[in-house]
Amino acid sequence: MSLADIVRAYGAARAARDPREQEADVIRRVTFGLRAALDDDGPVRVRAVADNRRLWLAMETALVDPSNQLPAQMRAGLVSLGRAVQREMQGPTPDIAFLIEVNEQVAIGLVGGG
Q1: Quick check: 94 and 85 in contact, CB under 8 A?
Q2: Residue 5 vs residues 15, 34, 37: alpha-carbon distances, Å
Q3: What are the extents of the domains in the chain?
Q4: Closest by Cα among 45, 21, 50, 25 to 35
Q5: Element spanning 67, H or E
């Protein structure tokens, strides 16, 4: 099996995954960066918060899209939560532990756990 075959097989496996699991994966990756930033006041923290900001902005964009199939009340709740997360990240020293907790809970909710 060639490297190209492996890459194609990996891509096909990822495409077959449940979209919610894929979304949860993205959140977990961003959360991993936040964990790395817990004890960092430099570029690692700046990058992690910036990545988290982009994540929540993308989520809000998807949530307000009229074609989004989540129930309206759930979408509104997630938009509200996202705006609280955005406010937290606007301060000079965002509470990284809070951001991690929120992300983890949303990822768990996406895959039906907890």
Answers
A1: no
A2: 15, 34, 36
A3: 19-110
A4: 45
A5: none
Longest dimension (CA), the chain: 51
- Tell the residue number behind the tokens 């979408």, with chain if given: 75
Residue found under tokens 């700046």: 46
Would you state the pLDDT for residue 22?
87
For residue range 56-89, list pLDDT tens digits in order: 999 999 999 999 888 899 899 999 999 999 999 9
Dist CA 56 CA 59 (whole Å): 5
The model's confidence at residue 20, banded by pLDDT at 50, 70 and 90, is: confident
**Two structure tokens written together for 41:** 């006041």
Write down the H helix ranges in the chain: 3-16, 19-36, 43-64, 72-90, 96-110
- Report CA torsion sign: 87, 60, 24, 3: negative
CB count within 10 Å of CB 23 equals 17
